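QUALITY CONTROL LOG
STEP: pairwise intake check
CHECKER ROLE: data steward
CRITERIA: each record must contain a sequence immediately followed by its structure tokens, with no blank fields

ENTRY 1 OF 2
RESULT FIELD BELOW
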Amino acid sequence: MALWKSIGNGTLEGVSRVADLDASKLTITLSESLKPIPPHETLLFGKTMSDHMLVAEFDPEIGWSAPRIVPHGPLSIDPASSCIQYGNTVFEGMKAYIGSDGEPRLFRPDMNMARLARSAERMALPPFNTDQVLALIRQLITIDRRWIPLFTGYSLYVRPTIMGTRMGLAVAPSDHATLCIMLSPVGPYFRSGVKPISALAVSETVRAWPGGTGGHKVALNYSPGFLPLRVAQKQGYEQILWLLGDDLKVTEAGAMNVFVAVKREDGDIDLLTPPLDGTILPGVTRDSVLALGKAHTAGETTLPDIPASLRLHVQERIITIPDLQQWHAGGKLLEAFGAGTAVVIASIGKIGFKGEDIVFAEHEGGLGPIAKAFRTRILDIQEGREVWKNWSVPVAEL
């Protein structure tokens, strides 16, 4: 068996060198019949796929195969493959937009690629060159660019997925893998649009635990939450606010990072989010909110409809349910919102815990002023209406 290891950007090196992922070897088989594009207002998140997808396989004796763009369709995977039997699948969520120049662009794709590489390493999957993955995404988006919606708040969702495909039932890492990149035109993640969501805080089940995989984007993080979500929905809530430990630490809301805005005695606002302790996904949107909040306070930018004189004291700190209850009782808890690639920013209108609700003030348009400011600024950057720190990258430059 060939030996291999990652030496940077996922580049492969070993005693017996195997082929790295190479976008220059790409072959393209176009669909003979293109699908009609549905009206944008009918799009449900992730239900519609574009015409094509990209596929490449890793074999430990050969390395990565020549990547292929082919018509979107089923993959052939043995039922004994480790991704089916042991769930070693990782993925990313990215979005492509049409900028004001009419060209497709991605939002901070370097962060997605770095996280994909970390997730693959955590699941002991074969490494890959992240620059080559981005080059392949560029090719795929270029071919299917007609699927990028031209309406604000809409985009083309990009889902790179890596699956362990070692065949066999032995409990062991997978030395075979399949890379598949799919594209899906999407609108608002929640069918209610920007209406505030309600969340039931639960401590009986957990999304992630210290030393686990919560800090990585792996498939097995998500399915254990489906049953608790069903229970919460039967109680009239739309999402789960995941708690951890005896002190009831807030971690994530559904699949979103959580922020809360708390009024300070001096009139400024503390903008708080839980720290990255290994149980929380390091979200790209989370990082963007932190950076923009700090830039507002430093005077480097002014968030929409937020006075420049209003300082946002951005902090990564532990937040507990007792904290939220105390701040709410004291009239200091101004807003709570979730942040993520799929949703961008979503206000939380109600948090339930043990039969009692924390209810936030209603705002016109469904977003609190701070949540709205971040959503507006991030969408403006993503869709090319504003330029900020090279966050919006033209696909042609990948």
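ENTRY 2 OF 2
RESULT FIELD BELOW
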Amino acid sequence: MKLSHMVLMTGLIGLAACSGDERDIRLHELRSNSGQPEEFAIVPNKPLEQPPSYNALPTPAPGAANRTDQTPKADAVAVLGGNPARLDETAAPRGDAALINRASRYGRQGDIRGQLASEDLAFRKRKSIFNWKLVPEDEYDKAYRAQWLDAYGVLDAFRRAGVRTPSAPPEGWED
């Protein structure tokens, strides 16, 4: 092996060893790397209003809600004809009680998100043979690729079985 090859290989290994990912403890993050603002994250401010009486305003308190703070759920309830005063952000809707009781009939865990995050991290670490990479890649794609659904295979199976299916773009359209 030539000396230049050994120097190149050592440099690549050293460079790969410097890469680290501080996001390991979080679940998969879906975000755009385009550098543009996320249009769905931008919420316009409520218009300023003059109160009927300045003496009737509540005393300002640090951390307390403001009259111009965004309340998207209450605003949606009001637009749809509901009563935003009856909206309880912490409780499940009354109409979902049967669903919640059925889903939790065998018990439920309060820390399920943390448990799933730690199990997911352990699974990804087991699937990662080498912890170094030259080019950043989505670790979820690599770890969960074997569990992906073959959408066109399932579509073909349904069509062969005579099930009416909606049209689908041709295979490989996103390439």
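INTAKE CHECK: passed for both entries
DESCRIPTIVE NOTE, ENTRY 2: The chain has a mean pLDDT of 76.
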